[in-house]
TrEMBL record:
Residues 1-21 are annotated as: Disordered. Signal peptide: none annotated. Transmembrane segments: none annotated. Keywords: Hydrolase. It holds the Pfam family Amidohydro_1. Gene3D superfamilies: Metal-dependent hydrolases. This is Amidohydrolase. Residues 313-419 form the Amidohydrolase-related domain. It comes from Algoriphagus kandeliae. SUPFAM superfamilies: Composite domain of metallo-dependent hydrolases, Metallo-dependent hydrolases.
C-alpha cells in the first residue's frame, strides 16, 4: 500500500474547541511493553507528550509536569487498528429521482456512483459504536462511507474525544462493491462490473484529453466530470480500492477487474476465505478478515434426544463453525498477510473471537500483527502506527495481563495521547477455580438508556429442558404502549447472560443483542442494536 505518511512529522491532533488541557504529558512506568508482534515483553517506561511517544526505555527522564501511570502489573501494546470500519457512519439518504429519469441511463448519484463523497461527512465521533471500538482496544479506524456500488472515499480517524478533529487522512481509499442499483442500470452483478470498467476507462480517457488540452492550442476543452475527477487517484494508483465481497465468486470477480484494469486492491467482507486462499497467495492483494466468529449458541444448545437427521445437521453446523474460525490460521500459514475489519461485527466480542481463532491454529504473533502491523501496512499508516516506539502516535492498549489470556482485561486505552480508563471486574470462580455459571430464570425489571431516552420493561426467563426460553417487553416505537418479543439464543457463559430479541419498528425488524454480567438478583451489561451501536442496560430480578 502507499505510504500515506512517509516524510511527514507526526503531531498530536488539533483542538478546534480550545478545551484540551495545556499539558498533555504522561509517563507509564515499569510496565511490560510489547513493542511489536513476536517480540517478548520487557519491563520499560513510556513517555508521552502531546499525543506522541517521546521515549521507551528503562532510564527515562520524566518531566515534573508528567502525569504518572504506575504500570507495574500492566502489559502495553500498540493500539489496535480497524482496517475497514463503519463505526459512527450514517448512510446518506437516497437522492430524489428527476422528472426526466431514464432507467437505462440514470445520473451517477442516483445509480450509487459517488466517488467524490467522503466518509468524513458521514462520521460522528460521539457515536456509541466508536466508544465500543475504543473500549475493545481500537485506537484508529479506517472508516468507509456507506452507499451504492461506489459510495465514496475512506478516511483514517483516530478514535479520540470530541474535542479533537480526529482526522489523520482523507481520501485514503475508494470504497466499492458489486451491489447493483434497484430498478435501474446497473442492476446486476455483471452490469456493475461493466459500469466499473466504463467509469475507470472513461477516467483514463478524460485524463489523457485534459493533458492534451493543456499542452496544445486549438484542442477542444474536455468536460469536467465529478465522477472522473474523483476516480483519478485510483487510476493513478495513488489510493487503493477497498472492495467489499460477499462470496468466493465475488472475490474472483474483483480480482479479475483488478488484473484487467491495474488498480490497487484490498478485499473485505468475505466470511469464508478458505476456498480462495490459493488464489490470494502471492497476489499482493490486501485481505481483511471480519473480526467475528459464527454464533455458537446453536452448538451449545444442542439436544441429545434427537433423530439421526438432526444429529447430522448438528454435525454440519459444527463443521462450518470449525472451518470459519480456523481460516485465520490458514491464511497466516499460507503467507497471506491479513488485518481485521469490524464491519458487521460486535467490537465487544472481538477478544472472544481472537481467542477462538488462536485456539484453532492462529498464532498469537499473527493475531497481534493482524491488529497492528499488518493493518498499518494495508492502510498505509506504518509510519505512525502499529508498533510501540519513539516518534509514533501515542495510541496504546494497557491490559491487566498478556492481551490474549482469557483472564486479562483492558484497563486503559490511550488515543492520541488521551487516556481512557475502563472498569476492571473480578471474574467469578467456582470452588474448582473455574468460571462459575449463574441461574437466570425469573422475572427481571430492566432499564436501558439510548439516544431516544430512558426506557424499560420486563424480561421473563424460564427453564426448558437443558436450555431456556423467555420474553421481553419494550416501548413500542409506534407509541402504542408496550410490545412483547420472544427471546432467542439464550446462553450463559460463566456469569454472563446473553440473548437476542427483535423489535418491530414501522414494519422493519431490528435485531437487539443483550449481554450482561449477573450477580445474584442484579444484571449489568449492554445491548447492541443493529446499525445504532451499544447502550447500557441494567436489570433487577423479582425474588418472588
Amino acid at each position: 500500500m502507499m505510504g500515506l505518511f512517509s516524510g511527514t512529522t507526526v503531531q498530536a491532533q488539533s483542538d478546534p474547541t480550545g478545551k484540551k488541557s495545556i499539558t498533555n504529558t504522561y509517563a507509564i512506568t515499569n510496565a511490560t511493553v510489547h513493542s511489536s508482534p513476536g517480540t517478548e515483553g520487557r519491563k520499560a517506561s513510556i513517555l508521552i507528550k502531546n499525543g506522541v511517544i517521546l521515549g521507551v526505555g528503562d532510564n527515562l527522564s520524566i518531566p515534573a509536569e508528567a502525569k504518572v501511570i504506575a504500570g507495574d502489573s500492566l502489559h502495553i501494546y500498540a493500539g489496535f487498528i480497524d482496517a475497514a470500519s463503519r463505526a459512527g457512519i450514517t448512510k446518506p439518504e437516497d437522492p430524489e429521482r428527476p422528472s426526466d429519469f431514464v432507467y437505462s441511463n440514470p445520473p451517477d448519484e442516483i445509480a450509487g456512483i459517488t466517488p467524490w463523497r467522503s466518509a468524513v461527512d458521514q462520521f460522528d465521533i460521539e457515536s456509541s459504536q466508536v466508544s465500543d471500538l475504543r473500549k475493545a482496544g481500537f485506537t484508529m479506524a479506517h472508516v468507509l462511507p456507506d452507499g451504492g456500488m461506489i459510495p465514496g472515499k475512506g478516511a483514517l480517524i483516530v478514535l479520540g474525544d470530541k474535542e479533537s478533529t480526529n482526522i489523520l487522512k482523507t481520501n485514503t481509499a475508494l470504497a466499492a462493491n458489486l451491489n447493483g442499483a434497484r430498478g435501474m442500470y446497473p442492476g446486476t452483478t455483471v452490469g456493475v462490473m461493466a459500469k466499473f470498467r466504463d467509469v475507470y476507462q472513461n477516467t483514463k480517457l478524460t485524463k489523457e484529453r485534459m493533458a492534451l488540452f493543456a499542452s496544445n492550442n486549438g484542442v477542444t476543452r474536455p468536460e469536467i466530470n465529478p465522477t472522473y475527477t474523483a476516480m483519478s487517484e485510483v487510476v493513478d494508483r495513488a489510493i487503493p480500492v477497498f472492495f467489499e465481497v460477499e462470496n468466493d465468486l465475488e472475490v474472483r470477480r474483483a480480482l479479475s477487474l483488478q488484473k484487467e484494469l491495474g488498480f490497487q486492491l484490498v478485499l473485505f467482507g468475505l466470511e469464508e476465505y478458505e476456498t480462495v486462499i490459493d488464489v490470494l497467495k502471492g497476489s499482493g492483494v490486501g485481505v481483511l478478515l471480519k473480526l467475528e466468529i459464527p454464533d455458537d449458541k446453536a452448538i451449545k444448545n444442542q439436544k441429545e434426544d434427537v433423530s439421526d437427521a438432526v444429529k447430522a445437521q448438528y454435525q454440519r453446523v459444527k463443521e462450518a463453525y470449525d472451518k470459519t474460525i480456523a481460516q485465520a490460521g490458514k491464511l497466516a500459514a499460507a503467507g497471506v498477510p491479513f488485518a481485521f475489519s469490524t464491519i458487521g461485527a460486535k467490537p465487544n466480542d472481538a477478544m472472544k473471537a481472537l481467542q477462538a481463532m488462536i485456539e484453532s491454529g492462529l498464532t498469537e504473533k499473527d493475531a497481534l500483527a493482524a491488529l497492528t502491523t499488518n493493518a498499518a501496512t494495508i492502510i498505509g499508516a506504518s509510519r505512525i502506527a502499529g508498533t510501540v516506539e519513539n516518534g509514533k502516535l501515542a495510541n496504546l492498549v494497557l491490559s491487566t495481563g498478556p492481551i490474549f489470556d482469557s483472564e486479562s482485561q483492558i484497563k486503559h486505552v490511550i488515543v492520541d495521547g488521551k487516556v481512557f480508563d475502563y472498569e476492571i471486574k473480578a471474574k467469578k470462580k467456582n470452588g474448582n477455580g473455574e468460571n462459575a455459571s449463574v441461574e437466570v430464570a425469573g422475572n427481571w425489571e430492566y432499564k436501558s438508556e439510548t439516544p431516544a431516552g430512558s426506557s424499560g420493561g420486563t424480561i421473563t426467563i424460564q427453564k426448558n429442558g437443558n436450555g431456556y426460553e423467555g420474553t421481553i417487553t419494550y416501548d413500542d416505537p409506534a407509541g402504542s404502549g408496550k410490545a412483547t418479543s420472544s427471546l432467542s439464543d439464550i446462553a450463559i457463559s460463566g456469569s454472563t447472560l446473553s440473548f437476542v430479541f427483535e423489535v418491530n419498528a414501522g414494519g422493519m425488524s431490528i435485531s437487539v443483542d443483550v449481554s450482561g454480567d449477573v450477580s445474584g438478583n442484579t444484571m449489568d451489561g449492554s445491548m447492541n442494536i443493529s446499525q445504532f451501536g451499544s447502550f447500557p442496560i441494567s436489570a433487577t430480578r423479582n425474588p418472588n
